[in-house]
Amino acid sequence: MNGKRSLPFLPLALPLALLLPLATACGGSAGADGEGDAKTVTVTVGYQSKTINTVTAGTLLRSLGYFEEELAARGKRDGVTYRVAWQDYATGAPITAQMTAGKIDIGSMGDFPLLINAARGVELKERTRLVSVTGYNPRGGLNTVVTAPGSPLRSLDDLRGKKVSTSVGSAADGTLVRALRRAGIDPAKDVEKLNQQPSVGASALTAGSVDALSQFVAWPGLLAFQGKATALYDGAELNLPTFHGVTVREGFAQRRPGVLDDFLRAQRRATDELRARPVAAAESVAKETGLPAEVVYLYNGAEGIATFDPALRPELIAALKDDVSVLKDAGLVKGVDVDAFVDPAPLRRAVKDAAYPKADAARSELWLKGQGTTRSFATPGELLKAVGAAGGGDRVRAAYVPDAVTGTLWFADRAVWVTDGSGPRAFVTRSGAERYVSAHPGARIVGYADALKAAS
């Protein structure tokens, strides 16, 4: 710029004691709140390594060491030794549990979990504040509903009476609920929704014990890349922004405002690094997480699905307010005062001109094996010609193409291709391609190999 019915995943109902790690370094002699030995302060950061749109506040930031650098400079001035305790989780729910227990100071998570974070903070008298954004997509393309390859399911309407895995309270579940409702499907009555961890749901889809999976980055892209899933619904069809952000305990922010400033400056530096060297950043995140770099780049690359920008943009906050009703309907929150939760002051204080220019529409992109950079193309046809000239799959590490309607980037060899005499077009889902074909006489769906042959 991802057989037997699994046990339900209950991220919000687990007792707090089961979610708290045995060793947490936020209190006592290493207390971030200044308890005990005032010469040693530990800041505990909760992050989600595999939720790769949080990397500028998590995986990438940790590997770059920018936060530690900022704190070392502060420590020299203050005569204090600062250390960072990084805690990795699969979802935002346990991060919220730790924060509301006073055990995590700063955390990152998606928009729906952020609202639950705000609500639980109020309920448990450990208020939190949203202070920055990590990555966002203005249309909602970070969430996708996928099915198994060869599935007869072609559209959301086909999900009636089917089993769908998702993580209740996540942005992916919010996308599923909204998409089903728009299609005239009652998500509570017309589908059997299973509440599962992303990894459990992915295994269930592969095993055939669920018919579809609705998940957040990077699970849909990972499964598609592995040949284990086909996109059924592109979250960008909702045309509603979705994002990930950084939340901080209010008490910590008040007691350690300079440390929060250091974190936000470090996050901005990590964002600069990702935007300037996206291939290197993707390789770094892949090394840390075990995810394929090609999948990381799909979301975090120069033309990726996510735009990285710490600014608390008005359109993102407006979308957050719209999300509250979905969580209320699900009984997950009674309400959230979004205006009280969002605090732009720390970012304004820490980073001058925090916002980057808005991203342009995504372009097709080609990543060749052995190359540390990629090439972008104005049209899908130009991409296909370049793939053909490179020898097809022999030298191509990954080829990416935006959906012709939503703009969501996807793997070129997993996309659905359409030709209509004016050049090839690509779509994330077959239903999207079929809608285009039905509205354009002479257009027809073709395979990837045929699209390559025609272009070359």
Automatic annotation (TrEMBL):
The SsuA/THI5-like domain, residue ranges: 95-281
Protein name: Putative nitrate ABC transporter, periplasmic protein
UniProt KW keywords: Signal
InterPro entries for this protein: SsuA/THI5
Pfam families: NMT1
Species of origin: Streptomyces gardneri
Highest taxon listed in the record's lineage: Bacteria
Keyword Ion transport annotated: no
Lineage: Bacteria, Bacillati, Actinomycetota, Actinomycetes, Kitasatosporales
Signal peptide: 1-25
Signal in keyword set: yes
